[in-house]
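Issue: copy button drops trailing tokens. Both records pasted manually instead:
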Amino acid sequence: MKEIENDITKLTTFSKRWLGITKKASELATLTGAHVVVVSYFPAIKQYAFNSPSLQSVTNHFLRMEINHFKDNTSPTVGAHRQLRINSLNQQIDQLKQKIEEEKKKEKIMKKKLQSVERNG
């Protein structure tokens, strides 16, 4: 596959394919009661959208579902893995803080040496 170069052919192909996609999305929504959103952006026409029931209600439902998934549906295995990862990241942070402190000490020593050299210059 490659992009169609001719703008008229490109628009025609987009329109035909868009009609096919929205027909299938509508059938899916009708047959299963699913909430379906299909959004496409085509520069010459800007935005096409198919919504069942509405874009806002479907996106709100999806966002609520995602938030609840992370709050309530975390399996013990996922929770344990997440905690291990957090612990590992905290260790890395502690190591970096320690390195920063060491570098600050080295900086103080270097400043003192520089001041001594400048005085004795």
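Record 2 (pasted manually too):
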Amino acid sequence: MEVSNTKQQHQSASISLTKPVRCIVKLGGAAITCKNELETINEENLKTVSSQLRQSMTTGSNSGEVLGMDWSKQPGESEISSTLSDFEDWPVVDSSPFIVVHGAGSFGHFQASKSGVHKGGLYQPLVKAGFVATRISVTKLNLEIVRALAREGIPSIGMSPFSCGWSTCERNIASADLSAVAKAIESGLVPVLHGDAVLDDLLDCTILSGDVIISHLAAHLKPEYVVFLTDVSGVYDRPPSDPNAVLLREIAVANDGSWSIEKPTFQNKNKQGEQGCCSFNITITEGVLCSSVCLNGAHIDGGCHVNS
């Protein structure tokens, strides 16, 4: 464990970017997939968010012609939307460094839950089969998200945590080499990571969630913003499906990590992480502004925000 932590700290400490990361964006699984339909993408939402991301990444370019980068030979929207000659006179676009992380939604959850991958025990045939099936499913979704971003002219590159050497120890990150992510960013590419099935030093295997990945990336790459795109309007005091759920429009976070709800005003304003029947945690890295927005017609700069 000590060796893993030392290795992780060494890898993270060696990351140095010539241009700071502007934003890490989390695409919620429920927002980009149809969670009640196995391995089904919400095409409309994915197309909308891909277009919004292009506008946010590209300086001074909110509209106009888009040269697609998905040259795969599949029908429909996947057809080549540009020719080689289109790129010859295309100006170099100044884009802000972004990282995209997405959840699994209707991809991977079924395979992982039915086989118990998150509990470990890779020596068990069912768990081993589930580990393989989960990775097939989540990497399939990753490819489709990369393709959707590429169709919008975003130079996206899929990066699976397992393949990049990420691992855990009792579900906590033990090793996470960020050099590949950093090199991609320095090369003008947009890394697209996802929740994944990974090896665990004590459990054999488990599930590494996209939220944990974002927390680690934010801690070591210090982005200006972390934005969560969801299928609801923001952070609530209890499950949004509850008719009494209240949208927390502003949460203030102090330098010591403590936080309080600013808007709306509750009688017990500083109640930490517990409102009604639901508990939740707010984690913030120094200098990082976290936002949560809804894909239902909203822009990336909308929704609930956290002030540091």
